[in-house]
Design goal:
Blueprint: H1 7-40, E1 47-52, H2 55-65, E2 79-85, H3 88-101, E3 103-104, E4 110-111, E5 126-131, E6 150-156, H4 157-169, H5 179-218, H6 229-236, H7 242-250, E7 255-257, H8 265-270, H9 276-298, E8 305-307, H10 310-322, H11 326-338, H12 342-355
Parallel strand pairs: 2-6, 7-8
Antiparallel strand pairs: 1-2, 3-5, 4-5, 5-6
Length: 361
Amino acid sequence: MKMKLDMHCEMILDEYRDRLPVLKKLKEVVLGILQRTLKENNMAVTAIEGRVKTEKSLAGKLELKGSKYRTIDDITDIVGARIITFFSDEVDKIAALVERMFDIDWDNSVDKRKMLEIDRFGYMSLHYICRIPKSLYEDPQQPLINEISFELQMRTALQHVWANMQHDTGYKSEVEIPAEHQRSLNRLAGILELADEQFSRIRKEINDYRRNVQSLVANGNFDEVPLNGDTFRSYCQLKPFQRLAVKIATINQAELYEDSPMPYYKVLLRLDMKTIGDVERMRSECSEGAYQLALIQLAGTGLDIVAYSVALQNLCIVKILKLGYGVAGLTSMFNAIYGESTYNAQRADRIYQQAMRTNLI
């Protein structure tokens, strides 16, 4: 059904049609700026969206409250963009970037997160009305790009999902949905809002834990640091096996190839190591044996490239043999690193025979 608009609203629609190419260009420019800025600041988000309001949508808005607008410039959401974040605290970080980039119309911007009604969770986004300053982007052929306002919404993924669910169910007022269903939706909104808060809190606590662990590792407080993937990675950044690896490479005057020792993390767990201090003690107690084993392994090979991880591999071999796990233990180690294969048992037996020529067994 054709909407009934007065002459004033029809004039606004005519101006919208004239501006449509510029409006579409403005949307593209805004999205490009946002994508580039977030990438430069290493900020990952779930989505960056943009749209230009359709003529039908604008006409509907004018039919409802056209008298509110003097000119098309009073309608600040014809061009809209949205940034959807993973965590609620990221909204403020992105807002800080946006404030430095764009000219913000503070009188018409609104922080809907400050609403206290429980059923408003899906609308708790931060809305800025912005313009692009010429210092950020300018096209002499389209000066209106710097004069037209656009709306930028910033919200979390959970807020976005909830808003879409409300839209799909037609949930707009108490009249449209029976009280018992409205109550259930309100309770769910509260759960999602709590989840949003808890995700941010848990991430902060994990980051605090990681920073504390990195500090303990950097300061050499190894016995206070439990052995896990994160702590072992931090420990490896200190290059604890570098001295032994260089010494082994020197046997053949070989080049040292920098690979990752991370695959040996699973082996260390199988050796019942609980802290980084346990790994340090293995490094201290088994280094000479690891070097002696390398002398036998490399003798007469002419090998001119040695992997950095060979140092940790030989340390683990020496530890396994000292614990009396023999060929079975070595086979288990190779299976953990390379995947199960009959070749691993052959390799384990060969190394065991080499170790017998030292004082390791």
